[in-house]
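To whoever is on call:

I kicked off a structure prediction for a single chain this morning and the downstream step that reads the tokens threw a length-mismatch warning. I double-checked the sequence; it's 181 residues and nothing unusual in it as far as I can see. Pasting both halves so you can look.
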Amino acid sequence: MSKFQVNIEFTLVTSVECDGIRFDAPDGAEDFEDNSYFSSQEIECDGGEVSYVIEAEDENEAEDSAQNVVSDGGEVEDYNGVVWQITNVNVSVEKVEEPMTFERAVQILTDLVENHGDEDAAEALDFLLAHIKGLTETAEQAKAASLAAQEAARVAQQAASACQEGINALTATVADVTSEA
């Protein structure tokens, strides 16, 4: 299975109608009539956006998962109890490229061998993994030895410099003694 980034953009639409609003006649009014009629108004709100990463067999399966989250023509209710219709749904799906790591490669190959059901393939994979593990351990030991050798060379260089300084100081002292004599 692969991972996919799913982005969903959509609009919410609702209709508002002032229903049941009546005005009372003031005290002393005659022939009061309330003929108020308020038309309904459609409200459209852009800005709906949902995104997530999902494991799926392919891009179509990942896109189908978006229908479970936001469905064109579906209805949602906000915190005020207003029901909105979902429209203009735009779904984009992009495969997430995962970097290949040793652990991921082992898992992919193990899954492949297990699904194939071939005992020889399973044995071959186990052999290769053991061999790679041995090579990795040898490489790590060689790296450690190389670092130790570099440190020893650095210490030897410092010792050689100290010896050279000692020889130079001794030579200068001998020269001073010889010139005074």
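Update from on-call: the warning came from a stale cache, not from the record. Cleared it. Sanity check on the structure: Residues 119-180 form the longest helix (62 residues).
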